[in-house]
Amino acid sequence: MINSFFGSSSGERKFKKRRRQLVDKLRDRGIHDENVLKAIGNVPRHKFVETALEDRAYKDTALPIERGQTISQPYTVAYQTQLLEVEEGDKILEIGTGSGYQAAILCEMGARVYSVERIKHLYDRSRDILEELGYRAQLKCDDGTVGWSAYSPYDGILVTAAAPEVPDKLKHQLNVGGILVVPVGDNDRQIMMRVIRTDEERFETERYNAFKFVPLIGEEGWKE
Ligand code: SAH
Q1: Is residue 17 one of the residues assigned to a domain?
Q2: Are the C-beta atoms of 40 and 23 separated by less than 8 Å?
Q3: Which of 45, 77, 115, 161 has its CA 20 to 30 A from that of 180?
């Protein structure tokens, strides 16, 4: 009992230190939104990967999760979240729950989080871990390319898989002033796009850096 208690608390200390180092690295790479950095410093990323990969959880790399999917690289998570300009109380929709890590980051920032995942097994796993850690995100197992109309409009929508083009239905589930962040491109490379709804029928599109995500599969994504 006592040994395992000390064992786990020194483990937690080790992870906490690594999280601080990761935050420093992200700051060096140009992430400047202090709320994003604080969330990355607080969310235990090692809980969102399998035990065998725990030790690599605070390296700035993507890692495999089940069903051939990945937990995005911390830099990518920070980059997308920063573009989303999240404020406390914002209603945010994420497409591609995956491990649940990005959803936890958004919860940690005080957002009201909705997240859709198409693979049932990942949906089940992320629901369990988010609940265990006390993060309250609303999750749904479905095709997220058509959004989640029951709770729209959103202040922000974040797509964490590669889309062939900007999904039209997602744009229309934004509030005026709302922001959609989505990687758009082919299988090998995508450009991070940011779409801002400037009024009912007007959208402004900005293009950012190139990334590589797993494909977004569904009605307004790639066909299976
Ligand atoms: N945000 C995740 C990254 C997961 S990778 C994390 O923090 O771990 C992208 C995820 O998008 C995969 O789990 C994949 O199954 C999911 N996905 C792909 N197409 C989807 C769709 N149409 N709707 C919902 N999820 C989708």
Answers
A1: no
A2: yes
A3: 45
User: pLDDT per residue over 8-19, tens digit each?
Assistant: 688 899 999 999
pLDDT in tens, 178-203: 999 999 999 999 999 999 999 999 99
Ligand 1, atom nearest to 216 Cα: 19
CATH code: domain of residue 96: 3.40.50.150
In a domain, 150, yes or no: yes
pTM of the full predicted structure? 0.96
Length of the chain equals 224
Q: Indicate whether residue 96 lines ligand 1 (CB < 6 A).
A: yes
Residue 76 lies in domain: 64-211
User: What total of structural domains would you count in the chain?
Assistant: 1
Relative to beta strand 154-159, strand 137-141 is unpaired
